[in-house]
Amino acid sequence: MVDAARHPKIKLLTYAEVKEVNGFIGNFKVKVEKKPRYVIPERCNGCGLCAGVCPIEVPNEFEEGTGPRKAIYIPQAQAVPLVYTIDMDNCIECYKCVDACGKLRAIDFTQKPEEVELEVGTIIAATGFDVFDPTPIKEYGYGNCENVLTAIELERLHNESGPTVGRLIRPSDGQIPKSLAFVQCVGSRDSRFMQYCSGFCCMYTIKNALVLKDKYPDMDITIFYIDIRTPAKGYEEFYQRARDRGIRFIQGRPSQIVEDPETKNLFVYAEDIALGQPVEVEAEMVVLSTAAVPRKESVDLGQTLTIPNDPSGFFMEYHPKLKPIDTPSEGVFLAGAAQGPKDVPASVSQGSGAASRAARVLSVDEWEIEPIVAYVWAERCISAQGKKCGVCATKCPYNAIVVEVGKAAQVIPAMCHGCGGCVAECPHNAITQMHFTDAQILAQMHALLAEKPEEKILALMCHWCSSAGADTAGTSHFEYPPSSRGIRVMCSARMDRDFIFEAFRLGAGMVLASGCHPQDCHYITGQRHAAKRFEKLDKTLEGMGISPERFRVEWISAAEGARYAQVIREMHETLQSLGVKRIKEENEKARPQLEKRLKRWVEVPDVAEVLDL
Amino acid sequence: MPRLSGFDPNFKEEVLAEPGGENLYRCFSCGTCMASCLVWRVNPDFNPRRILRMVMLGMRGEVLSSPVIWLCSACDVCYPRCPQGIHVSELMKAIRNIAIREGYEPPGPVAMVDEELCSGCAVCAMACPYEAIELVAKQPSDGRRPVAQVDKFLCLNCGICAAACPSGAVSIEEFGDKEIAMQMQAGNWFAEKGLEPKIMVFICNWCLRANADLVRLNQLPPNIRVINIPCSGRMDPSFALFALKEGADGVLVVGCQPGECHYRRGTYIGQGKMGLLEQVFAQMGIVDGRVRFARIGAADRGKFPRLVKGMVAEVEQRREGK
Hints:
The structure holds two protein chains of two kinds.
Chain A: H1 2-6, E1 16-22, E2 28-34, H2 49-53, E3 57-59, E4 68-70, E5 72-73, E6 85-86, H3 96-101, E7 114-120, E8 123-125, E9 129-131, E10 148-150, H4 151-157, E11 179-186, H5 201-215, E12 220-225, H6 235-244, E13 248-251, E14 256-259, E15 266-272, E16 277-283, E17 285-290, E18 292-294, H7 298-305, E19 332-334, H8 344-362, E20 374-376, H9 391-395, E21 401-402, E22 410-411, H10 421-425, E23 431-433, H11 438-448, E24 457-462, H12 466-475, E25 484-489, H13 497-505, E26 510-515, H14 526-534, H15 537-544, E27 551-555, H16 561-578, H17 580-598, H18 607-610
Parallel strand pairs in A: 8-19, 10-17, 11-12, 11-17, 12-13, 24-25, 24-26, 26-27
Antiparallel strand pairs in A: 1-2, 2-7, 3-4, 5-6, 9-18, 14-15, 15-16, 20-23, 21-22
Chain B: H1 11-17, H2 32-36, H3 39-42, H4 48-57, H5 60-65, H6 88-101, E1 112-113, H7 123-127, E2 133-138, E3 145-150, H8 160-164, E4 170-171, H9 177-185, E5 199-204, H10 211-218, E6 224-229, H11 237-246, E7 250-256, H12 266-283, E8 291-296, H13 303-321
Parallel strand pairs in B: 5-6, 5-7, 7-8
Antiparallel strand pairs in B: 1-4, 2-3
């Protein structure tokens, strides 16, 4: 951190908040609000005389409340930059610090929040994680029992630079505990709170246990765990070392921690799975290894940076295996626990990775993007005619469309990822997607349904999941009837309702619209928009006289080849049971209404050539 | 040694399909349920985690024929603690339903109804926390009329019905009125000299959760007599009256904290009964707290000796005041 601060090309903005991000890869404009420190950084030399005279003491956030800090403070001893800050919520404005500062005159009570605008090429989000607050787990007594601590509190308590100078003491009586119990998976692997495994708690617990065992060899240490997870290099050996040192590992998640009102000792109840019996362990201190949870600001910051949050709330990477550092927003990268719980080595690796991903962008003058971006026919866009619309902009997951009344909607190609959601949503057919134009897709449809359409299943598949799922079915040799005909689009969001109408107009027996599962969508919200669009379509079709079971919506992932085959088999059975005669009748009945609906489409450039209305 | 290949691979699906069995697969054997469970004190063979494990391995015969599947009393202490949100009591119910269909029966004991004495008032049916009692028309010696009938599949022998019955027609094994009276009198305790003040303590089987507290029960001085009852809801006020009549100086009834009752709502019933008794005493002009209801919760470690000490001190003060 000190190196970073000294580097001529690195500018640190601490005690600041990102307010707004505009622009796209290579051309971001970031508005940052610098909060007032009430201390002039250029003049403060970090001598600390001000903190010496400050009469206010409040719990120190860095020490997790185990120690005090003054109202004028630096967050921690190694803080970079070494500049004091006045905490105005607690300051009583006695101005003693001003006197103490003397000739340096570094304290300035008139400071106001300051906004700076930065122009940057790439952004790396490395906002870290929060620690789970175990108070809601009533049976563990955190908050009620004085000697139940969280692991991070313990970390500060036995740290040499912590409030007790490395002496581990019990909060209730200030004595060094003779026995200590660690409880793993507090808040993590718990369907009530965080379903995921935080990953690094096993290791830090073992580390803490070993450090304490070195310091206090007589301390009786018990670790309660569900599973010990030590998957990385050298970790298992470390775990073995802890076992060798006589630390007691009990497999079993404690059901309850009870405080003895007289001694303030704690009784931990758990089942020893290996023994198959409940056990009671008396400990003078209990440490809860709490889950790593997303920062509480992560949703707001995610919206500012256009990074989606995964179901747990961490920032979502572009692809879990192939693009673990990138985000769906190009030019924005992730590092560390902001993406998911991570230990130090993994965070460092990802940090280096993010830096080199960013350098790749910064080192070139031009950046290539996929050609499949959206394109607006300015003359068709009603926004250009002075009417209010903007549907496309609201549906774009990447904020890549700018709509101003009086001007046609404008697509920023560098931000467009080519899902085609806007194309399908535009009520005036004013947008198209390069290489996936309506005319091209229609041409495919016409070719596939040219012969005996009533015996065929037309499958619209998204590129990332369903199409890959169909491939998996093929490569895995899962058999399904030969009646299906597939059309690939980039995302289920591209699937216009008109495609389905047109398919039935052409006489298709069955239509399948399939995409990713909601959490797997490669275009953040694409699947959700599609799902909403198709929600009541079967009712509409039924109104036209088409049996609702002839249209099916399925979410099939790339791995679910067997499921794809199964869906096609089921649809084929339905097709057979309805019979060609009935399908033909239904299609004939629905045709006039379908044609009416599709009429407007002919105006779209190139469509008229294909659409024989 | 059990051979895994010999087990029934479909058993887990069978349980899964049963209402209540839905979350079976989520169990990762952390042992929270077992460590919460109170039943193992009565029967150490009962281990909900192991039963779920056996189901998942497909040990169909062993599970269904086992007497322990009938022991879960649906106190649901484990349910809110389970990190995987598994409702163990519902799962047990699912397993029992399969066992019942296969012709297995719970080993008992269950509440018994003396049909001659039963007046068909249905008070017991309303009191039962498990809806195990219903009225059926029967032909006792004085003609056809409704009498209470206990469903052996649902009854858990808590004795709340026995305490509720106004005609003395319902009784339970081991904790019947006679047995409890005999325990109170055992060793001619009431007549024994030099034991003042004498305190009769009725304590629910379940509310002492820590083993250390159980040990402390045995270390109490001889002037404290502890009677175990299955639930504070089993407490018939006439037990208290009997003890006071025979010469006890105070009666203390200890039940569980609300929400922790082993028999769902027994602790409320027990508290209600003792509250009424206190009111009756108050109407007679006796307001010295000689009958009392107290609660011990899961986290009240060491509360029991304090309770008893407090009561003894009060009685002594009262005697000196005289």
